[in-house]
């Protein structure tokens, strides 16, 4: 008999049996209803400009925070803050310049739940602020212009884990910053949601 056989019997076999029992148990347990009420979401992802502005801005990392309240199981309202960092790909000089775009506003989300999966559409409005005038060289921003009205809309899906207060989600939004020469972008993010 080899040395591997006793190791298999003592370690691997009990681990396989425990994993099998957990899988068997999870198939018999129904998903608990998702929590509703006040919630917080935190997400990370990427923002890519589309249209004319895409020639002057690289893809950038994005971070967002959303706080809100579920009014019904199918409707929530909230406020959001987001920031993204982009390389300005304008003709030199300057070269190697970066800028930040800060966003904040309010939104509403309509959705439905199918067992552990929820699907939703969302939309809202707010303000955007650009950190520098580096895009003024290509007329995306006017001299001294730092703020823009912002509208956004999108859709997503989230998965409720066994603890009914937590869910993981994926959302994709498109937004338009009217005063920044109609700059449009697509933002995708993975997020964690906690409902109190």
Q: What keyword list fits this structure?
A:
single chain, about 200 residues, mainly beta, Porin, 2 domains, 8-stranded antiparallel barrel, 1 helix, 8 strands, about 15% helix, about 55% strand, flat
Please tell me the CATH architecture of the largest domain by its name.
Answer: Beta Barrel
Strand order, sheet with most strands: 1-2-3-4-5-6-7-8
> What is the number of strand segments?
8
CATH fold node name of the largest domain: Porin
Count up the helices: 1
The end-to-end span amounts to 56 Å
Measured by DSSP, the beta-strand proportion falls in over 45%
One letter per element, helices H and strands E, the order comes to HEEEEEEEE
What helical percentage do the residues reach? 10-25%
Question: What would the average pLDDT be, to the nearest integer?
Answer: 88
CATH class of the largest domain: Mainly Beta
Structural class: mainly beta
Note poorly predicted spans: none
